[in-house]
Every structure is written in structure tokens, then in C-alpha cells.
Design goal:
Number of domains: 1
Structural class: alpha/beta
Strand order of the largest sheet: 6-5-4-2-10-12-13-14
Largest sheet: 8 strands, mixed
Helix content: 25-40%
Number of strands: 21
Length: about 425
């Protein structure tokens, strides 16, 4: 059974009739050589420079008398549970913001996140990584604080379209192969009609660069943000979707060409949106931490040794700590202004999870954020586990079979409760 962490129902019609938004960015590129995240073949090899910078992009929204932070990170995953807790506590103290979606783009050219300041788990051997974690937390907090300070009257619109040829299902051999082809855009304008920020949501692994490239890069995501920002004259936040089984289509070119092409598609959507004022802006948020049995016993010396060889020992020791008592993913769902749903989950969800949630949720637009508010590896569908293959087996998907479906059913139930269609 799930353990409830937060379950806050905020009234749909709020007392302070205002909609505001603010944006800020911070550079989060490591300044020292550290192990890189994303490819086990690298083991503990250190980075050797920067191909392009990594950023934390923060959008703060105020709807009525409630506030929400949405943070896109050019990182492989979002911060650890302990780090996320520290960030949120500081943000609440400095801004009063209680709710947030903090997610990684899933670039495979960012720093490792699974180390800690304990002997044999990172301390002493990877102190540069531990120093980076402290700087990263500070950067995320300051980005949110600055975005909050910039809150100004705003208008909002959301839309999406199915785009072909950008992502492919890398897992299944069974036709038709599911792929979430929704390219979704949230456009936030100031009162004067100029965009404050654009949020882009799409599902495709940022893996255009090879594992032998040991330089930090936001991959195609950084190129997409830069290209779209130049066209829109406004900053861009990217939130990765349910990309667990979604690869890029390499026929679109290298990371620059792919990013620019996707940015052009996003700009078409943004241009067709007409942000409007709101008479009764509203925000409802529910968050819960679930507990599932693990399919992998890292306390078994043989299994532990196998993982340590595949990755590196300090990394695996931290994973062992993470999964004591089971796998504990976090699900966060928000309903904005009664018609835009945001669902964030702490793992690599297969695309059919998001596709089915969107089909079943009766809202104008649903954004699904993977790699959000934590990271608990792959969440394949039940049929994907039955088929087998990478991403579906316990070696990278320790969570119990059916966990993804349970989380999506919870998200769907919460949305209908927020809409008033299902009574608490």
C-alpha cells in the first residue's frame, strides 16, 4: 500500500484572484572533473571538459493564492531524495513555495548523482562530486528564488500536436510499437503579450552523443532550447516525458540538427496559442511516495559484486541504501486552472504509461514529466516485462511488476478528484 507523504486539496476557486509567472536560469555545469552519468561502460572515468553548458531553468507560477515551481535540469536525473528535501525546505523558507516539479532532461552527458559523503560511498575518492552537489542545490534554490521575485501578471495557454519521425520505440519487437508523439507546449505571456517563458514537453532520450565523449553536454535539449528561445524571444524550459523506451530518430541528424528541428516544431505550436487572462485562477496539488517490493536484492554479495563490476562500487553501495525497504517512487500531480494537468514521476516510464494516462484523463492538456522529483530507474509496462529486453528486466528496473500502472491509476484518480468528478 502507498504511504501518503502529501495530500493537499486546495480549493478550485481561490481567494486571491491573480495569475502570475516568473522565470530564472542558473548555470549548473560542473567545474571539476567528476564521474559522468548515463553509460555504465564509463564506470568511474572522469569528465574532461564541457561541450556545451548545463542549466537549471525555473518557472514559478502563482495561481490564486497558491504557488508552484517547475524546474528543468540539463542533467540525467533529478537530485536524490535527501537533496530534493533540502532544496524544497529552503525554497519554502525563502519564498513560501511548497510544491515543485524538479526534473532532469535525461542527458547522458551530465554528472553522476548517486554518491554520498560516507566512507566507501563517495567521500574521499569523489569529493569533487560532493562539492558539486552542494553548488547544484544552491543554484536550484537561487533560480527558484529569483523566478519568484520576478512574479508578474501573466496569461497562459497550452497545446500539443503529434509529430512524426522524432522518436522511435527502442524496446518492443511487437507491432504496432507504441511511441508518445505528443509535443506539448505551455506558453506563458506577460500582460503585454510578450512571452515570459515557454515550457516544452516531449519524450525522447538525449543520446545523440556517444559514450566515448567525456565532456558535459545538454545534448539535443540544449540546442532545442537555444533555437526556440531565439525564435520566441523568451527563455525555454524542457521537461522530459515518458522516455523509458523512446530513442531519438537519428535520421534527424546530430544533436544540433535534431534540437533545431524539434525547436522549429515547438515554435509552430507556440505561435498558434493565444494566452488568455483568467477570472478564477486555481491550483491543486497532490504528492505521494509509494513503496514497492524490489526485484533485486543488492544485499546479496554475488548480485552486489555483479553490479559493482558493471558500474563501480561506490555507486552500487548508494543504490543499496536507496532500496532498503523497497523501491519508493514519488508521484506528483497538479491541476492548473481546472484544465491543464501536470503529472511528474521519479523514474524512466515507458511511453504507454503516458499515452494511456492522456487518453483517460479528461482535461484540455496533460503534461507528463519523467525523471521528476527523484529517480527510481525504469518503470516498464506489464506487457513490456512479459516481453523482456532492456529496460524491462530487474537489472535496471528493480521496482515490482505493475508499479507503473498503479502510479498512473493513482494519477488518474487524483485528477478526477481535483475536477470534482470523484469525491474524496
Amino acid at each position: 500500500m502507498p504511504r501518503i507523504l502529501i495530500a493537499l486539496f486546495l480549493p478550485l476557486a481561490l481567494s486571491g484572484q491573480v495569475f502570475q509567472a516568473g522565470f530564472a536560469r542558473r548555470d549548473i555545469t560542473p567545474t571539476e572533473p567528476v564521474p559522468m552519468w548515463g553509460y555504465g561502460s564509463r564506470h568511474d572515468a572522469l569528465s574532461d571538459g564541457v561541450l556545451d553548458p548545463l542549466h537549471a531553468d525555473a518557472l514559478v507560477i502563482r495561481a490564486g493564492d497558491r504557488k508552484l515551481a517547475i524546474v528543468g535540469l540539463d542533467l540525467g536525473r533529478s537530485p536524490s531524495t535527501a537533496s530534493l528535501t533540502r532544496i524544497r525546505e529552503r525554497v519554502k523558507q525563502e519564498t513560501g513555495i511548497e510544491h515543485s516539479f524538479i526534473a532532469g532532461s535525461h542527458t547522458h552527458h551530465g554528472p553522476v548523482f548517486e554518491l554520498s559523503a560516507e566512507d566507501g560511498k563517495g567521500k574521499g575518492r569523489f569529493d569533487a562530486t560532493l562539492r558539486y552537489y552542494a553548488r547544484l542545490e544552491e543554484a536550484i534554490v537561487q533560480a527558484i528564488v529569483e523566478a519568484h521575485a520576478k512574479l508578474a501578471p501573466a496569461r497562459i495557454a497550452a497545446g500539443s500536436k503529434q509529430i512524426q519521425g522524432f522518436n522511435v520505440n527502442r524496446h518492443t519487437r511487437i507491432e504496432p510499437k507504441p511511441s508518445d508523439r505528443d509535443l506539448a507546449v505551455l506558453r506563458v505571456d506577460g500582460d503585454g503579450g510578450k512571452p515570459i517563458a515557454l515550457l516544452v514537453n516531449f519524450a525522447a532520450h538525449p543520446t545523440t552523443l556517444p559514450d566515448t565523449t567525456m565532456k558535459f553536454s545538454a545534448d539535443w535539449v540544449g540546442q532545442m532550447k537555444n533555437s526556440l528561445a531565439a525564435q520566441a524571444g523568451a527563455p525555454v524550459i524542457f521537461m522530459q516525458g515518458a522516455a523509458g523506451d523512446q530513442s531519438i530518430n537519428r535520421e534527424k541528424g546530430d544533436f544540433r540538427q535534431y534540437g533545431q528541428a524539434l525547436g522549429a516544431e515547438a515554435w509552430k505550436i507556440a505561435q498558434g496559442l493565444a494566452p488568455a487572462g483568467l477570472d478564477k485562477p486555481s491550483l491543486t496539488v497532490i504528492e505521494e511516495v509509494f513503496t514497492f517490493k524490489s526485484r533485486v536484492d543488492l544485499s546479496n554479495p554475488i548480485i552486489n559484486a555483479m553490479y559493482s563490476k558493471a558500474f563501480f562500487p561506490e555507486l552500487v553501495r548508494n543504490f543499496e541504501d536507496e532500496y532498503v525497504g523497497g523501491v519508493k517512487p514519488r508521484l506528483t500531480v497538479a491541476l492548473l486552472n481546472g484544465d491543464v494537468a501536470l503529472a511528474g514521476a521519479s523514474g524512466e516510464f515507458f511511453s504507454n504509461h503516458a499515452i494511456r494516462l492522456k487518453e483517460r484523463a479528461r482535461v484540455k492538456q496533460l503534461f507528463f514529466f519523467g525523471y521528476c522529483n527523484g529517480y527510481h530507474q525504469y518503470f516498464p509496462t506489464i506487457e513490456a516485462v512479459a516481453e523482456g529486453g532492456y529496460g524491462a528486466g530487474p537489472e535496471v528496473s528493480p521496482v515490482a511488476v505493475g508499479a507503473g500502472e498503479q502510479l498512473m491509476n493513482s494519477a488518474l484518480t487524483w485528477i478526477y478528484r481535483m475536477l470534482g468528478s470523484i469525491k474524496p
